[in-house]
Amino acid sequence: MSTGHTEETFDLERTWLVSVLFVDMVKYSQQSQEVQAQWRARFKEYLGGGLKNTTEHDRVILDCGDGAAIVFLGEPEAAMHCALEVLGKIILEKGPLPKPLHVRIGINLGSVRLVRDINGNLAAAGDGINVGQRVMSFAGDNQILVSRSFYEVASLLTDGCAQLFRYEGVRKDKHQREHTLYELHPPNAAEAAPVTNTMIIRRIAPQFAANIAAVEKHLALLIGPIAKRIVRSVGQRVSSATELRDHLLAFVPAKADREKFLTAYGDIFPAAPPEESAEPAPPEPKSLPKLEATVLEHARKELAVYVGPMAKLLVNRAAAKVMTPAELYQMLATEIPSPEDREKFLKQAPAAAP
User: Fold this and answer.
1) Side-chain-facing half-sphere of 93: CA atoms under 13 Å
2) Is the peptide bond before 96 cis (omega within 30 degrees of 0)?
3) What are the sequence ranges of the domains in the chain?
4) Range list of β-strands (E), 95-163
């Protein structure tokens, strides 16, 4: 399998935010050469079907011998559709077959750097690839697992998309790094149809819809083509330019790039002087005392274990609505899907003063 890229279309010095799909043929190395050849032929056919709606410009395919890793530079839906297509074809294989093909599939949203391999072909490396492989390693036979970061974006794509995922738990890899996992289920058990065909896409909030193209352009310079989908997905769920900015910052991994984005964003949405504002900013509630910075930082670190980079935004939002650390932790716990993890998180709340 080749990458399909014949010319330099992306800056190889930049780090991109991408969706990474890892597919592994279970027990491939234990088979005879004849069976391996049969499996690879079927796998290549199914993978080709999953990629038929994705242009070569928007993907990089890495041949792993016993499977493949596909880096999707654009729409996250493409990774979901490809995974569901491959798994659907394998499950629906007519049998009985003497050596049925089973796969493990993992999807991650993370940062990668596009590089040239020893043969000059376009490849990819970075934490996004490594985590994608580890997510795949936790999957069972004919199971699709996704990382928390991918789930956060995918659940914003369309109405009802979150219903395709089931919380699987937190697993530790050999480096003791924790991974929060979700299982992806086909929208139709009998047929792995494209996910976007089953749901209704929301509309961008009107108060900043006119500026959305400019935001996409500047974010794309920092994280790549996936920026368009992230901006429009987040824009369906927020109600102000400030909230949009804070959500998007969570997807920019490098500090220097976050500063560039903030500068560009300020040009797109300049702060209006108080006398020119359409509505005066509401005064801060005097009845709610501000929590100590150390309490907020502790809560952010503890919450990040379960919800990833969105922890800072969630803590800041909750802090404006509560009076005590206990109330803060109770509100934040509602963002954690697992009852067991919620209980662990609540145990980290600072003890009340005597």
Assistant:
1) 19
2) yes
3) 15-188, 206-271, 293-346
4) 103-116, 122-125, 143-147
Q: What is the mean pLDDT of the chain?
A: 80
Which residue in 140, 152, 167, 74 sits closest to 108, CA to CA?
Answer: 152
64 secondary structure, DSSP code: -
| CB contact set of 19 (below 8 Å; sequence gap of 6+) | 71, 72, 76, 78, 79, 107, 108, 109, 150, 226
DSSP calls for 153-206 = HHTTTSTTGGGGEEEEEEEE-TT--EEEEEEE--SSTT----GGGGS------G
Q: How far is CA 236 from CA 83, 230, 311, 336, in A?
A: 25, 10, 20, 22
For residue range 213-272, what is the model confidence (pLDDT) as tens digits?
Answer: 899 998 988 888 888 888 877 777 777 888 888 888 888 877 788 888 999 988 888 864
Length of the chain: 354
Which residue ranges of the chain lie beneath pLDDT 50? 1-8, 189-201, 272-279, 281-288, 353-354
Query: Which residue reads 């209980």 in tokens?
Result: 343
pLDDT of residue 144: 96
Specify the fold of 15-188.
Alpha-Beta Plaits (3.30.70)
